[in-house]
Amino acid sequence: MNLGKVELHLHLDGSLDMETAYRLAKERNVIDETWTYDQFKTKMMVPSDNPSLEECLKCFDFPIAIMQDKEALSECTYTLIRNLNELGLIYAEIRFAPQVHCQKGLSQDEVIEAVLDGKKRAEKDFPNIKTGIINCCMTYGNAKINEEANLETIRATKRFLGKGVVAADLAGAEGLCPILDFKPLFDLAKELEVPYTIHAGEAGPASFVKDAMDMGAWRIGHGGHCTEDPEVLQEVIDKGIVLEVCPTSNIQCHCQPSYEEHAIIELFRKGAHVTINSDNMTLSRVNTHSEIDKAMTLMGFSEADIRKMTEYAIQAAFLSDEEKAELMKKI
Ligand SMILES: [Zn+2]
Q: What is the pTM of this model?
């Protein structure tokens, strides 16, 4: 369908350009010369039939190993934005966790600078697409393990706000510990006036969505499980909370049963502000077009519904009112 497309929820490390990743992996000895392109590709994508969460998480090993220096970070960001432009996107928020790219001595600031360098080069070469960077804090199941790195991510987000970075996030293995354990991060974000979204209610329960709202999030990554608690669902609807839903990724990770029974259908019909996103383009073998196609062929959404969701996405983008009005004109 002819519509300017928008992505609010896209992970850099799960969406790498395959040929760029293969080249960088060889150059950086992440793989040796015996690896063929097809072998490499297989390791970068989830097995198509019923993968376990472990298999899904394994797919991030190569991207993280590859992106430990400035050139790789910049190049991976550049080629992703180039690909998004080819897909006809007019706006994309790309997220990544600076702290996982510090294994070879880069500081979080240096990591962010390298990503912003790739973004700047891409936007110069491909002026039809606009992008914003979201810095993810990480959960590994115990908030204390990396609390200092996470607080540094919030502080770094503040330093780069208005320079290409638009917000912070909390990503990682949801549900291993209470999401409220991460409250200090969002208290700091509020104090510094750093906007944020939070992954909640993907693998975790409806109560996590409630907790994320209580911590001040008005945008939530996934959030599908909020339908399991009528009160939480009602609050999501009443407050106009924006849910960044990623249908295929949710199904692959066993967080939603199928396209036909995905919570996004009920959520949209009840008036919740849901948006459709790719999450991880390479890892999940999807892109913006294929997700919209699934939404229309398997989930019963009409072209008007997709347009409505695109409007929700633009209204919720981490952009100024003027910038949002510009995007509205393009859809
Ligand atoms: Zn995500």
A: 0.97
